Amino acid sequence: MVSNLNMRGENQRMTKIPFLNWTLALAFGLGLGHAAAPGKAHAASDPSHEQITGAWLIEKPVFALRTADGQEPPLKPDAAKIYQERQTARAKGDTSFDSATWCASLGMPRMLLVDYPFEIVVGPKEVAFLHQWNWWARLVYLPGALDKDASAPPPPGIGGPPGGPPGAPPGAGTSGEQEVEPTPTGFSQGKWEGDVLVVETEHLTNRTLLDNAGMPHSENLKLTERIRARSPDVLEDRITIRDDETFLRPWETVVTFKRQAKASRDEDVCLDRIQAGEPAVRE
Amino acid sequence: MAIDRSDMGAGRRSAPLRWATALAAVMLMSAVSSGRAADASQAPPASVMDPHNFEGTWTDLPTNSPFLLGIDLPYKPAAQNIASNHLELFKHGHAAASAHLTCRPTGVQGVTSPKGPVLILQTPEKLVFVAEEDREVRKVFLNEPHPQDLKPSYSGDSVAHWEGNTLVIDSIGYNGKGQLDEVGNPHGMQLHMIQRLTKSGNGNTLTNVITFDDPEYYAKPFTKTRTWQRISGVKLDDYDCAENPRSDLFDVLTWEHDWFQPTCQFQVKDGVVADKILCVAPNKKQ
Fold it and tell me: CA nearest B40: which of B30, B49, B31?
């Protein structure tokens, strides 16, 4: 049992956030100055940033990703072979390659591509994408949101020796930097360019799929999103996908979403849905 | 090389498992922490000093037990039996399967005892609490009533209003599958939870006075106080609880409710994890 208790600490594959990024982020954040007027609960400081707030649903759910001009993504041969094998398996009813089958995270960018709504909440330091599917949230950190030296207390029993007190908190090493391990939603840092939210996401685990069909990716995956309201009721996310292990070259896809009247208050619990015999992910 | 199954295997071993966390916590039985409060060396921004602005990242004080709300609760006999049984299970290294341990929304337990950072976002219409470890997302709607057609849920429905500098959050609409804390002090569908949240003058702590009114399980309402501290600048990690349903991790659970039984599992025999997951349709379960 003890080995399980420290599973996370023993196996995490850490990568460092380049110090330069943090420094720039902090400097940029200080320059912008995010303080709000006292007495007012606030959201975005610039009214144009509010255009993307609200509930959205993809206009055409994506089963298999295509480039912005409708072409097959430039998969390398090994990745193309895996992708084909998965599609063959899926056609036979075998989705064991897809961890969303047992309700693990859809990951990015797939969580944007499925037929489930999400809500965007714009704050002064973070933008939250609150997805209905299994209540996943993706947080985008704006300049000044993070402190490279800050650390959260670890939960009891995590990160320390078996039976002992917790070890040093993440980022408490000699470098003083917060460390990031690959996760389904990765580490997203954003900035505003006028009314466009530009989001860079990396540190994405390779256990997730790029799309429902099963397109693979490596942990080198980096996403650049340019998110804007094309009109009051249409949201556009222009996504550049870079992954030199999986693709021959960077490529771009564009997804659009239709504004929903109101974010649902319903709780979507994937494990309860599959208990009830429903699919984990609607297609 | 892109993803292959060996990569997935490595990932499965590193899954942040909620049930493992819970049992580790029970072994320690007290919340030890090396956390620290916000650095006060710089003048805080106006939003920190604004008593009506709860935005920021917070964490439960390490002196708050995430596992046990109390054993002095005004139990009715059924609740007393459940609580005693759960404590006994934990003492022997077992746990009753709960919403929290089986990767459902944590509900009330995430309000009384978040284990990691909680990010609060605030708009004129609502506050959103995003918790790291329980991956809970709780929306608290300002200045509007509970919906008439409320659908019972793990997290319930929360609305709030300001009374001076205190935010009063009113929560109802629970589905009866949640619990008040990790050990499993129970609550029912009739639970009415009222929180009174007040920020300290220096903006660095949030006092959370929680009153529980649940006539199904408790003889009278009771109140507990929890304090959160600000931890500025901390990134929340993903908590993909359902990622790694290894069969051996379910072995420590007892099943009071069938609805928590896993549908898909990686079978583990002699410490070896099967390559392929086994999913059993609910109607074919034993």
Answer: B49
Q: Could you tell me if residue A109 is inside a domain?
A: yes
Query: pLDDT by residue for chain A (283 residues), tens digit each?
Result: 222 222 222 233 222 233 223 333 333 333 333 333 333 445 457 889 999 999 999 999 999 999 999 999 999 999 999 999 999 999 999 999 999 999 999 999 999 999 999 999 999 999 999 999 999 999 999 999 998 777 666 544 333 333 333 333 443 333 456 678 899 999 999 999 999 999 999 999 999 999 999 999 999 999 999 999 999 999 999 999 999 999 999 999 999 999 999 888 889 999 999 999 899 998 8
- Which 3 state secondary structure label does DSSP give A79? helix
By Cβ distance, the residue of A78, A270, A276 closest to B2 is: A78
User: Which residue among A41, A125, A180 places its CB closest to the CB of B53?
Assistant: A41
The pLDDT, as a whole number, for residue B77 is: 97
**B31-37+45-230: which CATH topology?**
Lipocalin (2.40.128)
**Residue A161: inside a domain, yes or no?**
no
Contact between A223 and B9 (Cβ < 8 Å): no
Residue A230 sits in which domain range? 48-140+181-275
pLDDT band at B64 (very low <50, low <70, confident <90, very high): confident
Whether A147 is covered by a domain: the verdict is: no
A164 is a domain residue: no
ipTM: 0.86
Q: What is the DSSP letter of B102?
A: T
Strand, helix or coil for residue B127 = strand
Cα-Cα-Cα-Cα torsion A202, A204, A210, A216, nearest 10 degrees, comes to 110
User: Nearest-CA residue of chain A relative to B153?
Assistant: A267
- Which pTM was predicted? 0.84
**Nearest CB to A206: which of B7, B31, B132?**
B7
| In chain B, % of residues over pLDDT 70 | 84
**Number of domains chain A is built from:** 1
Residue boundaries of the structural domains of chain B: 5-17+240-284, 31-37+45-230
Asked if the Cβ–Cβ distance from A103 to B242 is below 8 Å, we say yes
- Chain A residues near residue B282 by CB distance under 8 angstroms: 275-277
Please answer yes or no on whether B53 and A42 come within 8 Å at the CB atom. Answer: yes
Cis amide leading into B145 (omega within 30) = no
Q: Looking at chain A, which residue has its C-alpha nearest residue B278? A: A96
CA torsion sign for A240, A24, A20, A203 is: negative
Torsion of CA A155, A160, A164, A168, to 10 degrees: -80
Query: CATH number of the domain that A235 lies in?
Result: 2.40.128.20
- C-alpha to C-alpha distance for A206 and A97, rounded to whole angstroms: 12
